[in-house]
Amino acid sequence: MAAPHRSNARPAPRPSKDKPGPLDCLEAIYLAEARPGHALPTPTQPEIAFAGRSNVGKSTLLNRLAQRRALARTSKTPGCTRGVVLFELRLRDETRLHIADLPGYGFADRSKGERAAWGKHLEEYVARRASLRAVIVLIDVRRGPQPDDLQLLDWLRFIHRDPIVVLTKIDKLSRNEVGAAVASAHRDLGVPVLAVSGETGAGREELLQRIRAMVAPVEAQPGTDAEGVSAPVTGDPTVGHPPGTAPAQPDALARPNISDHA
Ligand SMILES: Nc1nc2c(ncn2[C@@H]2O[C@H](COP(=O)(O)OP(=O)(O)OP(=O)(O)O)[C@@H](O)[C@H]2O)c(=O)[nH]1
Ligand SMILES: [Mg+2]
């Protein structure tokens, strides 16, 4: 376990011009960090994860969703987030969820052995975490999808994990340029694409609405856990998926090359 993050359970400070909204974050708490060889706590809430290249703005966006300045650590130096870091958020509308901030890929400043250990750790988290409802894949709006992003998206589809693709840092481009980038990513990836800025908060509500839909309680089916959050981690990457839709164990070729983790 690494040094604790700052946690802050107080209501978020809001500029006085804002009216209270249902998606205001009333509580945001650091729960745990797991590095290779360490397990996360047993899930108690539906979870989503932030994935993407190093420095794309995952931790900054998480802070923006939580309306906290320094809940997750951020830095302009790539490789800031070093473990799977778990937070709990409670919104005004009583939505409760966990968000996992993942280390970025595409950052090769570590030994080959360390990167391999990281890749395995993250693959296991994404494939096996029973409470994981969606993976938010962040892509820099100025660069568009890179080969490692495409590999990750392919693999997520292969293991039946729902990706939400989000273009970040839209404050860096004009409105027209952002529109063109969203259309192009949508065309290339074949999935809906959201656009956000962790810096200004643009797109926060739309993203939270998508997330809220993904973490909403599902109808209980006989013999299943409705929330899918208390199933044990069994080593089966298909845990948490409806029976009959589970894919075969992904083979090495289908896996993303996400071993460049910090
Ligand atoms: N202009 C602008 N800068 C951003 C935005 N999001 C993040 N940044 C900056 O980008 C840098 C990286 O941000 P992080 O949130 O630490 O990136 P990360 O994806 O968590 O990085 P790793 O933990 O290394 O994987 C920081 O200097 C942020 O201030 C954004 O939406 N707009
Ligand atoms: Mg980070």
Quick overview:
The chain has 262 residues and is of the alpha/beta class. It is built from five helices and seven strands, in the order ββαββαβαβαβα. Helices cover 25% and strands 18% of the residues.
Overview of the molecule:
- This protein has a 7-stranded mixed beta sheet, with helices on both faces.
- The longest helix is centred in the middle third of the chain and has 17 residues, at 112-128.
- It is built from 5 helices and 7 strands.
- With 262 residues, the chain is an alpha/beta fold.
- It has one domain: 3-Layer(aba) Sandwich (Rossmann fold), CATH 3.40.50.
- Helices cover 25% and strands 18% of the residues.
- Guanosine-5'-triphosphate binds at residues 52, 54-60, 74-76, 78-81, 103-104, 168-169, 171-172, 197-199, 262.
- Which fold name is given in CATH as the topology? Rossmann fold
Q: Cα-atom Rg, whole angstroms?
A: 18 Å
Mean pLDDT value: 81
Quick one: CATH class? Alpha Beta
Strand content: 15-25%
How many strand elements?
7
Strand order of the largest sheet: 1-3-4-2-5-6-7
Total count of domains: 1
Described by strand count, sense and barrel closure, the largest sheet is: 7 strands, mixed
Bound molecules: guanosine-5'-triphosphate, magnesium ion
Shape: globular
